[in-house]
């Protein structure tokens, strides 16, 4: 089990590093989007002697690629931080051990098969695009295979993180490690709402 936990720590460190680094692409995407909007707004008013790129489909597609890259490569980091959406008002009423078993069950039988299937389907989809040199059908558009590679890479990272979460959740249930995300299981807003509702129920009783 210690070997698996060691593997889990390696996966966590990789996805934490990638997740933090790709967050800067949001800033790049915003700057590209703003530049594209300004240049389009100015239009013909820009003098020809200015050596700056004009608005184009390539710039539009670049900002889509940047947003897509952040979404795909940061999804594993989001899973690592346990920040994916869940119904806290329901899960907050369950005991910690029940939530641990639910997480373990769902990671094994829902998340893991899904991401493995997407890796399986994404590989030939990316490979065909790469080998053919697929280019956007928009005039002046970008090559497409880098964007498809980000989809494949995102699901590979998410698969690795799913395995890491399964290892950690099993270790938590066995009492081998402490809860890696204690803040998620102590959501103050949800716990306060539940406590207030319970008190109101007692008062009415």
TrEMBL record:
The chain crosses the membrane at residues 21-42, 62-80, 101-123, 143-164. It comes from the Bacteria. Residues 61-169 form the Tripartite ATP-independent periplasmic transporters DctQ component domain. Part of the tripartite ATP-independent periplasmic (TRAP) transport system. The complex comprises the extracytoplasmic solute receptor protein and the two transmembrane proteins. Belongs to the TRAP transporter small permease family. This is TRAP transporter small permease protein. It comes from Chelativorans intermedius.
